[in-house]
Amino acid sequence: PGGADLTYQLTLEDFEQAKYKHEMSNAEKLEFAEKAKEMGTQYFKAGIFDLALKKYQVLSEYLEPEAEEFDDMPDSDDEDKEKEAEKSEEKDPEHEKKSQQLLLAGF
Known about the structure:
The protein is mainly α. It has helices at 26-45, 49-63, 76-91, 93-104. Helix 1 (26-45) runs antiparallel to helix 2 (49-63).
């Protein structure tokens, strides 16, 4: 009847534990991040901004480099060359435009 309380009993029959971030390969992390981005975009378009933000935060976490990826750090000469290249890119209006687009896209 209308207005009656219903009680459901659910039984979980199967469960597969997802891999932790540190257990994933770079390809798996990228795939996971792409799915998080898609979900975030869907939530954003639906106006559910708090959930969209959470998905975009997950996305950024999975795209951050791990500490062990820095084992082969370049020497200071290489770092100086990279800094000079970054400065020249910052002056490039096209690079600036692309950076703005990435920021707006949630990266």
